[in-house]
């Protein structure tokens, strides 16, 4: 099944400084389809491996001009890491490995932890980093945190809800846990100032969302969003 994959880049900001930290590469289809739609089509066609390969290569090639000051966050399925597809795709790009953060998506369980750990270790030795994405949803649970070495803990957007006290408490608990195990805590879904305030009260180190900066076809800084973040943080 052929996939015509493009990428958009969502900025990620540092709470403490208001500076741009990097971008998440968001896979898009030829008609603007989001990754969830592409994933559903590929799963139905039993071609998830090919979709993952194309998404990886598209994101990494599009980010080759990225300034060395920033990191690129790229979504990837656990099986693509364990089976070596991520490692082979790194041979096709000129980005410094230290700039790449692979986000383990919550759509798929990790079936072989020893193989996954061995693959992660090899890729980490090159300089790449890893994030557990969508924490609190799907297969993104506490178990991978206890068995695999991550650098970032990234929560699902649904946990940034200023109107639900239970969810807000859960977000703060996640922030405390991330701090306790020395992971950088990333809160997504910042679509309004109340969302941002909720993220800040949870101990977020990094934030992303439409309120701060919308995705674009090329990785670009947005000074107005940086100024906004500094003002709210203060």
CATH class call: Alpha Beta
Low-confidence stretches: none
Helix content: 25-40%
Briefly note the structural class of the backbone: alpha/beta
Radius of gyration: 17 Å
Tally of DSSP β-strands: 8
SS element count, helices: 9
Residue-averaged pLDDT, rounded? Answer: 86
Supply the CATH superfamily name: EAL domain
CATH architecture: Alpha-Beta Barrel
Proportion of strand residues: 15-25%
What does this structure look like?
- It is a single chain.
- The chain is built from 9 helices and 8 strands.
- By secondary structure, it is an alpha/beta fold.
- It has a single domain, classed as TIM Barrel (Alpha-Beta Barrel).
- An 8-stranded mixed barrel has the order 1-2-3-4-5-6-7-8.
- Strand 6, helix 7 (165-180) and strand 7 (184-187) form a beta-alpha-beta unit.
Write the layout of secondary structure elements.
Elements: E1 6-14, E2 20-28, H1 35-44, H2 48-62, E3 71-76, H3 78-82, H4 85-89, E4 100-104, H5 113-126, E5 129-135, H6 142-147, E6 152-155, H7 165-180, E7 184-187, H8 193-201, E8 206-207, H9 223-233
Parallel strand pairs: 2-3, 3-4, 4-5, 5-6, 6-7, 7-8
Antiparallel strand pairs: 1-2, 1-8
Which features does this protein show?
TIM Barrel; 234 residues; alpha/beta; single chain
Question: Could you write a compact summary of the structure shown?
Answer:
The chain contains nine helices and eight strands. The protein has helices at 35-44, 48-62, 78-82, 85-89, 113-126, 142-147, 165-180, 193-201, 223-233, and strands at residues 6-14, 20-28, 71-76, 100-104, 129-135, 152-155, 184-187, 206-207.
């Amino acid at each position: 099944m052929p996939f015509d994959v493009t990428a958009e880049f969502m900025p990620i900001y540092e709470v403490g400084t208001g500076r741009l930290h990097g971008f998440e590469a968001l896979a898009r289809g030829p008609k603007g389809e989001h990754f969830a739609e592409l994933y559903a089509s590929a799963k139905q066609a039993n071609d998830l491996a090919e979709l993952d390969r194309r998404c990886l290569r598209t994101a990494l090639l599009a980010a080759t001009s990225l300034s060395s000051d920033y990191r690129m966050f790229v979504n990837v399925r656990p099986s693509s890491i364990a089976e070596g597809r991520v490692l082979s795709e790194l041979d096709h790009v000129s980005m410094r490995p230290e700039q790449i953060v692979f986000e383990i998506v919550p759509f798929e369980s990790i079936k072989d932890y020893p193989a996954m750990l061995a693959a992660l270790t090899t890729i980490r030795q090159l300089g790449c980093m890893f994030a557990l994405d969508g924490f609190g949803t799907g297969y993104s649970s506490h178990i991978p945190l206890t068995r695999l070495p991550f650098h970032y803990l990234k929560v699902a957007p649904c946990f940034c809800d200023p109107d639900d006290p239970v969810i807000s408490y859960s977000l703060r608990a996640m922030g405390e846990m991330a701090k306790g195990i020395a992971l950088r805590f990333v809160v997504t879904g910042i679509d309004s100032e109340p969302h941002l305030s909720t993220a800040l009260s949870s101990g977020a180190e990094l934030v992303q969302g439409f309120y701060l900066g919308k995705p674009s076809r090329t990785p670009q800084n947005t000074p107005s969003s940086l100024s906004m973040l500094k003002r709210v943080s203060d």
